[in-house]
Amino acid sequence: MFMRIFFYCILLITLTRFESKAQVKWINVDSLFGPLPSSVHVFKTTDLLDGKPNIAYYVEADLKDKALEFTTDTTYKRRLTPSQFYDKNEKPLLVVNATFFSFATNQNLNVVIKNGKLVSYNIHSIAGKGRDTLTYRHPFGSAIGISKRRDADIAWLYTDSSLRYPYSRQAPVKAMRDSVQAFTKTGAEKAVLQSLDSNKRVRISFPAWKMKTAVGGGPVLLQTGEIRVTNNEELKFAGKAIDDKHPRTAMGYTKDNKLIILVVEGRHAGIAEGVTLTQLAQLFKDLGCWEALNLDGGGSSCMLVNGKETIKISDATGQRPVPAVFMIQAKN
User: Fold this and answer.
1) How far apart are CA 198 and CA 183, in angstroms?
2) Count of CB atoms situated within 10 Å of the CB of 122
3) The whole model's pTM is what?
4) Is 302 helix (H, G, I), strand (E, B) or coil?
5) Which residues contact 108 (CB under 8 A, 6 or more apart)?
6) Residue 15: per-residue pLDDT
7) Closest by CA position to 61, among listed 87, 96, 91
């Protein structure tokens, strides 16, 4: 009897592990959001995720289709709902929320690039609390960008209003800690140097990141096709908060030049409970993405395709006003 119970437990553990890594099935729902260009598709899943109810959508767009324009929009000291951005920008094909922001100031907390110009900057100084009130931590925020050649990239950035371009790293940089609130480019270079192997003599690679379009968020979810959530470097969520389930917005890209914009519904008990950042990373890996980036989630998560909502918004009042969005416009 004992052996039967033992083998049953082993089987149950094995099946549970298999289920947690099983791919969900995505169904093409283009017909619900048409008309769409042939290079853009919309997919939906309602498959259980780790045994929990789940609703998610993603849009796949061909980065090399010159009939598509990938762009951004942002506001100054105010916020708009995604539907208001949709009307303001002559009804683009896709509108999705992007950056984290301050409710108090309506300020973006991440980089935004529009038509090659920096219009918003990363916040690089986080004040300490309690006994550490006189210290500051200086993280490098991550962003996803699209170049003039329509190549996508995810990088960790230093930004400053005095600089024309962000400066970038293709690997995460450990947040620097000091007692100086300002974080200059010299300080950023020092942080990069400290993050390298001190036993090796290497030249610092800290080039300008010349993107036509970009939005910031964090943490990074995928690197070189593998799950690696860089929350410890980017300091987005404290402690075990990365394991909390929430509505999510995120973007990634494949090596064959497909941009993936994904939203997950959440905070609807028994219907759609949201996902952890690790689960979100797994979804992108299963879709074949090379890199992927988390964006602002929770009540901000909202994606419109031809003006129609995909997921149900978690806020009881409907779409949350945000200061920045990523958009796809179909050229006539």
Assistant:
1) 22
2) 24
3) 0.92
4) coil
5) 74, 99, 100, 101, 120, 121, 216, 323, 324
6) 40
7) 96
Could you read off the pLDDT of 163-174 as tens digits, one per residue? 999 999 999 999
The token pair that represents 270 in the structure block? 């028994």
The C-alpha atoms of residue 244 and residue 257 are separated, in whole angstroms, by: 31
Closest C-alpha to 53, from 229, 242, 227, 245:
245
**First and final C-alpha spacing in the chain:** 71
Does residue 207 have a cis peptide bond before it, meaning omega lies within 30 degrees of 0?
no
Residue whose tokens read 């009540």: 299
For 59, the token pair is 């849009």
**Residue 253 half-sphere exposure, CB side, CA atoms within 13 Å?**
19
Own/partner contacts of 312-318, CB < 8 Å, gap of 24 or more, are: 312/55, 312/265, 312/268, 312/272, 314/247, 314/265, 314/266, 314/267, 314/268, 318/81
Domain assignments of the chain as residue spans, ordered by start = 26-125+141-164+211-330
pLDDT digits (tens, 9 = 90+) for 14-44: 444 433 455 899 999 999 998 999 999 999 9
Q: What is the helix (H) or strand (E) element at residue 82, kind and residue range?
A: helix 82-88
Place of tokens 């500051």: 136
